[in-house]
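FORM 7B: Structural annotation worksheet

SECTION A. Query
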Amino acid sequence: MAEYKLAVTTGDMANAGTFDHIHVTLIGTKGESERTELDNFGVDFKTGTAGTYTLKTSLSLGELLLVKVEKDPFFILPEDEWFCSKIVVMTPEGDVILFPCYRWISRGELVELRGGKAMKVFEEDHPLLIDHRKKELTLKKSFYQWKILAEGLPHINNFNNVSELPAEVRFSDSRSAELLNTKRITGLELKIKGLLGSAEKWESIEDMKKIFRYKTTKMSEYVEEHWKEDDFYGSQFLNGFNPNVIKRCSELPPNFPVTEEMVKPFLEKGSSLLKEMQKGNIFLYDQKKMDGIPARAYNGERLHVTAGLCLFHLNSKNKLMPIAIQLHQQPSEENPIFLPSDSETDWLLAKMFIKNADSLDHQAVHHLMNTHFLIEVCIIATLRSFPVVHPLYKLLFPHFRYTLPINTGGRKSLFGPAGALNKSSLGYDGLIELMRRSLSEMTYSSLCLPENITARGLESIPNFYYRDDGLKLWNIINSFVRAIVEYYYPSDGEVCKDTELQDWISEIFTHGFLGNRASGFPECFHTVEEVIKFITLIIFTATVQHAAVNNGQYDYYSWVPNASLLLHKPPPTTKGQTSMKTVLETLPNVGETVSCVAMAWLLSEKYSDQASLVPLGRYPEERFDEPAPKQMIERFQAELSHLSEEIAARNSELEVPYTYLNPAETENSRVKRITRDRDRKQELTQQRRKTWIRVTMAEYKLEVTTGDMKYAGTWDKIFVTLFGTKGQSERTELDNYGLDFTEHATGTYTLKTSSSLGTLLLVKVEKDPFCILPEDEWYCSKIVVTTPEGDVILFPCHRWISRGELVELRGGKAMKVFEDDHPLLIDHRKKELTLKKSFYQWKIMAEGLLHINNFNDVSELPAELRFSDSKSNEVLNTQKITGLELMIKGLLGSAEKWERIEDMKKIFWFKTTTMSEYVKEHWKEDDFYGSQFLNGPNPMVIKRCSELPLNFPVKEEMVKPFLEKGSSLQREMEKGNIFLYDQKKMDGIPARICNGERLHVTAGLCLFYLNPKNKLMPIAIQLHQQPSKENPIFLPSDSETDWLLAKMFIKNADAMDHESVHHLMNTHLMTEVCAIATLRSFPVIHPLYKLLFPHFRDNLFINIRANTALLAPGQPLDSCSFGFEGLIELMRRSLSEMTYSSLCLPENITARGLESIPNFYYRDDGLKLWKIINSFVRAIVEYYYPSDCEVCKDTELQDWISEIFTHGFLGKKASGFPECFHTVEEVIKVITMVIFTASAQHAAVNNGQYDYFSWMPNASLLLHNPPPTTKGQTSMNTILETLPNVGETASFAAMAWMLSSKYTEMVPLGTYPDERFDEPAPKQMIKQFQAELSYLSEEITARNSKLEVPYTYLNPTQIENSPAI
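SECTION B. Predicted structure
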């Protein structure tokens, strides 16, 4: 018989052994053995032992492929997991094969071990091994997933607690216990001394020495004695905990005005700053990346962090001496340059603030992010991309061994919002921003030590031991990595065809460096050299670089005056005002100090557990089976040992030894953290079972979210069916045996299938009655499905579902029509669009106008397009309360005329705004009148005038008195100071009939002059288009009431043009066209549907309501001077003249010649918003349409633009609006215009209506008397008779109040509460969009604070995402 010898090794950590039965099955190319128990008739599998067993088969199994291991219970004993280190098999042919395991095994698990020979993916040729490899990676990808800690930072693992990690990547029991005891003893010592938690200030520096009397190191004691000395201060920037920032300075930064006189006393006699820079003896520390990051709030006040600069001089004794410090980036009188010749405490405080910033930068960036977080990215990518048999897994895993438990625990206990680092000067949010900025600036070369040293000009500075030791270690590691990589990848071709290797680097590039190509990090590999360099960097970072920034923390941080993460008082702004008392008040209090010191002790402490403390180059887990890599490891260890002796010899001669990069002190993987939860073997049995190759059924996790609006929940039964490429699930009820689907709740459900459904395509949702309860519609926001393979897929819903409906949801990844390749999805897409085109249809409101939707009442709309119940009730209540107030006052419906202008103030006593009050006081003033044509509700008509129209015969003599002395109308036109308002499109439109007589509307012209004070002044008004004796030109020198009436008739025409054209048609109706086209042309899975729908959300509802309650015959706008028919004609004429460019703000402003007119805040804010929206749209569109070709072949996109062209611009080619798309640029421009119109433009013409229209004499939609035809015949009584009567005034004011009111469910521009995009890229783009809007909001608020008349309408916080009122 064939006989196989098995040597089975149990791990040497506590509780690694087991009493259970262990069975193995050998699988080879010629068959497999029987399932055989390993039993030597005694206690097998004891901790730290190896047992030898014999397994016999009738024939040789051929080449051995797998060893299958199973663990069954021993009688009734409870579960005791077994840590199997390795199994070595000697075959009948004499081959000795290593099967590495190094993991815990639980009862019921089936573990399949691969032979130790490293294999790349393209080398597999046996179907069994190919399938095993695929299954292993599929399961690992489902277990190790990515999570975003904060936008702009490297992504992290998906585990919330170290207890969720597999035991083989956690600390041993003994190590965890030792760490926990160290923390407890440390805390107990501090509590006994009464220090921990104390809020008292230190009375003297010496008192700090009592923190730890016995917890000292030689270096920490040295720091206590020498921390004030400048030469020791300078040495820390080379050999302290953060040797990563200082650089050689050949030219001073412009913002650091150090003069020769300042520093001459600190240089060599006869030398100068310039000479020393030329010699290479001047060095700079510059923390400009911290500039502007707000410190955290402390006791109600914000702390201070300085983004300082420090200049160092390398003197003739090779000592690096600080010679000048500036604590902020911008020089000023309150930001002096401190010098060593200043008072002792001034200079001390300046150095302390520099070290405070350096400490924050060290902990957050160079320690946490650049070693811990980046290595975490590499380990997750390694676990997800490489099977354990891959040569690079075998090489890399020992350097990642403890990264996940450290980082997972450290994020809570150290870095999280409640962690120790949150108590630093910057706090959690500030540290996040610092890391975000640092990552955005990070380059590949900055992490590669040889290039880093060269870039900073530090190749020759003496006594730079971090550099000396680090470069030697880089070369040793590089040599080792080169040997391994070239052994397994003898050519570049092998690199290119290793898909697992390419997946690995792609994951690191995407999740570690966020796809930033400018960083220089590789996103794929082409050559062996690229692989060698990158892996050298990874191992160096995980070991050497981590040791450099970690191991000296207690040495330098324990004496808090030397380096404090927290300073209380602000930095000095003048010299000579400080004392030692100031220093003590600036330092942390007693409790904060001891907390920082305890943290440093725990982070730097050495532990005795040798299983956890593995020096660089030691590989206790035997993973390589080939002789060659084993020999390479031995050579690597020999070189490290030689370097260790060399460093020890050097250090013996130094006053301040540099020990941190001695290979004996450098660990293979990060092992320092603050807290450790004691491992309990049984608490993770289920989690570990998910880790490897055993899945009995495919399990889908569904997170179902119900909307947060009133009545969104349901009592009914909800059923789902999942559809995938390999089949569908059964129709399954979602029931957690309690109250499911309540408002604003997310329920988690499990759906099991006999096997994986493949790629998930659709989720079918159905709603059945619960007992005899009546219908209660359910608002489903989204369903998130986690597949057995670990994919997390968003299925957006965001709609109401009724009984009997069958709703099929597409996965959240946006797909264009030509990208769908599965018949089920193609059919689903067609059916969705067919249904929507039958439901959303076009209707002609009036000939020559934009087409509108086919719904006659808001009740016909789908519920998800209607206002919520709470918002509808709020709008209705506002309307009722407003009407009730006016009725109580006896105003509503009154036909009386106003007796005095002042009486109008009683319309609304309490419904006022700051701006409406300003209008009441200043409405007669010409400069305020002029300003309204720039920053009022209708800034869309006025334009620069270089030549007077022939029908507006204004003479020089008429306007000369109103111009600058010595100037003329012609000269002012040439200067660009004359502007024209011309309502010629109104000419000939009949006004409505009121009380049997036709009202009057003037198609007037108004000339404006921009005077030397930058005030826009009206200087001439003609009320009709054709000049005549009965159509005089009115001037500011006419009687007060003549001039006032002329201005009022111009504003009457402007108000009607505003309401019907620039507000109703150009924003509401134009957006409606785009909304209907979107609903008809795009399925919900289309990227442009996801982008555009939030900007149309409330448009149809508000438009249908406006058509029936505002514009229709008999409604408020029908009561204006034009009436319904006149307004329709005005809109018809306006649409016939409309051009595409007139809707695009940059082109509109240029066409009207308004690029440079001052105080034009609509233009200033609008252009910035246009640019921000355009940048956002560009990012989204270019992401989904990388080429013009993709635009051309997207038939749904072409249908969309064609529908808008046909139904919005009525097929008029002269408008310049595109009827189809050819390029990406065309798409970007149209979508920018659409979103700008629906949001910013609507806000500009809507939000100020009550401010300007509530005071009727300022802007009235209705005037009764005809305009004056001769001068000198009017009085204030004429004005009162011309204005609307009491009831009409109250009605118009109420309408303006309703249109301008703010409601609680307002959704600001850039806010997307309905999660529709599933990909990280567009989510990041939305974050960037929101950030830019936030910055603009702050900028506008700051400007408005300085203005007498603020312009608030385009502040992003005041702009709604969609026309909603």
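SECTION C. Observations
Residues 344-385 form the longest helix (42 residues). Residues 778 and 801 are 5 Å apart (CA to CA).

SECTION D. Sign-off
Analyst initials: ____
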